[in-house]
Amino acid sequence: MKLPDPRKEGSGNPGATNVLRLGGKQAAALTLVGDMLKGAFPVVIAHLVTDHPTILAATAVAAFVGHLYPVFFGFKGGKGVATAFGAVAALVLPVALFMAAVWVLVVIVTRYVSLASMGAAVLAPLFALLFIREPAFILALVVIAALVVYRHRANIERLRQGAEPEIDL
Question: What are phi and psi of 80, to 5 degrees?
Fold first, then answer.
């Protein structure tokens, strides 16, 4: 699509939000879908091999961490929100649907993608308590949420300072 490398332009993040700002909706949509599949595909494959909750949960976390710290890019990846969503959707779909609803609601109300992303991730373990009560899945969602918040440290500081960019709706 002849876009600049999102790791070197804009926010420096290779995720869909930065790609949206750099190249528009089509490029962002492709990035979003690709990142979601990166999280979902390993978990779907794991489901074909086993139904063991710990293995499925570990696969979801591994796919997510692999996006955050990719070997091929010097362990410098994105914030992992779309990849986390894909992994969670393949792990326990009802939780992912509630995450998506939270994300959309927070974006509509605040226009901050970062806040919506963190809110959806942080609430995921609570949604899991309501729907599945599988300790391995809940632990995986806690780990994912903690890492999502950690990866958004700079966004948190910009939110505190009132300097976080809003998304155009």
Answer: 85, 10
Residue 137 · residue 91 · CB < 8 Å: yes
CA distance 152 to 15: 12
The answer to whether residue 10 is domain-embedded is no
Altogether, the residues listed in the chain come to a count of: 169
Domains of the chain: total? 1
Q: Which domain holds residue 140?
A: 16-161
pTM: 0.93
What six digits make up the tokens of 90?
């393949």
Which residue, among 67, 159, 162, 68, has the nearest Cα to 115 in the 3D structure? 159
The answer to whether residues 127 and 113 touch, using CB atoms and an 8 Å cutoff, is no
Q: How far apart are the first and last CA of the chain?
A: 23
Residue 169 lies in a domain: no
Span 137-166, pLDDT tens digits? 999 999 999 999 999 999 999 999 999 999
